[in-house]
Amino acid sequence: MPKKKQISQELGLNDQTPREIVAELDKYIVGQDDAKKSVAIALRNRWRSHKLPEEMRDDVIPKNILMIGSTGVGKTEIARRLARLVKAPFIKVEATKFTEVGYVGRDVESIIRDLVQTAVRMVRKQRTEEVKEKAAANAIERLLDVLVPEPKRSQNPLGKLFGNADNDAPVADEDNNKKPGREFIRKRLESGKLEEQIIELEVADHAKPMVGMFSGSSLEGMGDNLQDMVSSLMPKRMRKRKVTVANARKILEQEEAEKLIDMEEVSETAVELAERSGIVFLDEIDKVAVKGSSSGPDVSREGVQRDILPIVEGSTVMTKYGPVKTDYILFIAAGAFHTAKPSDLIPELQGRFPIRVELKSLLKADFEKILTEPQNALLKQYKALLQTEGLALDFRADAIEHIAELAEHVNEQSEDIGARRLHTLLEKLLEQISFEAPDMVRDGKTEIIIDAAYVDERLKEIAKNRDLSQFIL
Known about the structure:
alpha/beta, five-stranded parallel β-sheet
């Protein structure tokens, strides 16, 4: 039991300080310091709550966050990077995918089922790492059984008829693992000399999942359980595959690891991990907000809010791994709120997101940083793509400044779509170069300089003609 607690905490907690978390997010996201700080504090509070005495810990619930800002300013990107950063079960879902109970579609309880599934994968991966060496050793023995098979024992037909075949057969060598031929092959295996040899391996035939079965509403969980029940009742079918020794080693290591892992203990740990450390990012929350009183499809949207409410408040959701309490799961919601306002959400749901963060619209200086500073920034991506053809792109400082200025201008003149505007502008800017790159290299041209004049020439129509800019995303 202590071991389970220790591993659960190790997986569910981030040791980074808020400043370190913000520094990590800064590598990929420009600006939006308030949102980064809120997320960093929420993660650190998770760590702090686990250090509290047992009697106080249960009373400390996470403070959910609502991020408000135009599309393309970094809300979803924060979620993506956070998912890679945290050691806790994390899922990102879009509120628009869910419907009220009674409508065709996914019910909101599937959010928690998906979260627990993520936790199971995390714990299972860790357990696999723990038994990796033992599984590798067992896989080697199974490989040797294939490469150095046991000689078939002769049988006395009369003995078989009278049931004493075992007595007539010669006694097998008990210490089979130490046979000279087996040891010779073992050395060749360890030295990697047999990796490309083709062998015939008997493996379990995993049936494909029945996609779509019981996919409607709350029956989807029932479909999963029924499928698991049927697969557990049916005997495993085996089939023979011809694979290289290298691939056979991987297959056998995976099979041996599964034998060594206690899946019941994995499920228990995963449920505890999801309950205490799970994080759910609810994107597009504004799309289920209902502006004023309306009827028709909006009834379903308000119903989604009512269904989300008990999960955010704290309830128990049944999953195939057992009941999961949602009281201590951290919810981070985000939305552009162009047509709706946060106050259009039902009051009970508003009250469950006490931390509100407004993300600022991006300006020229932000666009310049987005183009150059983050790891794998946009300009670095385009340079790398064309470098595969042997063509080097050189973006001058005045070109970068001009692209950023145009992005800000077009966002002001038409819809503000934030950093996504840069994708469109750069595609338009480099369209001709991308098309002609192979021909340029063939003709001996290996470098292209992109300056403000070139940017102006390629993008002047977008900047001048407002009607045209409306057709650009």
